[in-house]
Amino acid sequence: MNDVIKNMIERRSVRKFKPDMPAREDIEQIVQAGLYAPSGMNLQGSIIIAITNKEQRDRLAVLNAAIMGAEGMDPFYGAPVVLIVLDPKNAFTKVYDGSLVMGNLLNAAHSLGLGSIWIHRAKEEFETPQYKQFLADLGIEGEWEGIGHCALGYADCDLPAAPARKPGRAFFVD
């Protein structure tokens, strides 16, 4: 089995992270892998915001937990890095394109020995005035839809075993 496919098969979501910050070079490689995801008509509309600032990461966690109705919980499981994927609100393929970016981020993190997990509620976050202003403060103009968060860092747990694959999900027409 080739290394890329093996990486995809072995990747698992991590729900407990060490507080140690991954190397900036690793974060940049993961972001680059996300930017190389396929996109409808090759529009490359997805953007990635890499949050490594603890204060900003913690503010995002508070809002995300509130949206989930779980105040006081860390929805990012202690991960020190949160990569946020957004797509233009008017893009016809935004959910598909952003999902491909998320997949690349998750697989790239695993390939570099980092744990990751896809966390939802980015759509709801970036509909709030607080996070629209956050984008404006970063100089990001336009209307954006949050697709997902890739929380990442060093796993502070063993990777879970892969559950058995459900049968009857692949069909070949020869």
Strand order of the largest sheet: 1-2-4-3
* CATH topology call: NADH Oxidase
What form results from the Cα inertia axes? globular
Q: What letter string, H or E per element, gives the SSE order?
A: HHEHEHEHHE
Q: How many domains is the backbone divided into?
A: 1
CATH-wise, what's the superfamily? NADH Oxidase
Q: What is the correct CATH architecture?
A: 3-Layer(aba) Sandwich
> Structural class of the secondary elements?
alpha+beta
Low-confidence stretches: none
Distance between the termini: 23 Å
Q: Count every beta strand, where a strand is a DSSP E run of 2 or more residues.
A: 4
Q: How helix-rich are the residues, as a percent range?
A: 25-40%
| Biggest sheet character | 4 strands, antiparallel
Task: List its traits.
174 residues; 16% strand; 4 strands; 6 helices; alpha+beta; NADH Oxidase; 4-stranded antiparallel β-sheet
SSE diagram, text form:
Layout: H1 3-10, H2 24-35, E1 47-51, H3 54-68, E2 81-88, H4 94-111, E3 115-119, H5 122-125, H6 129-137, E4 144-153
Antiparallel strand pairs: 1-2, 2-4, 3-4
Helix pairs in contact: 2-4
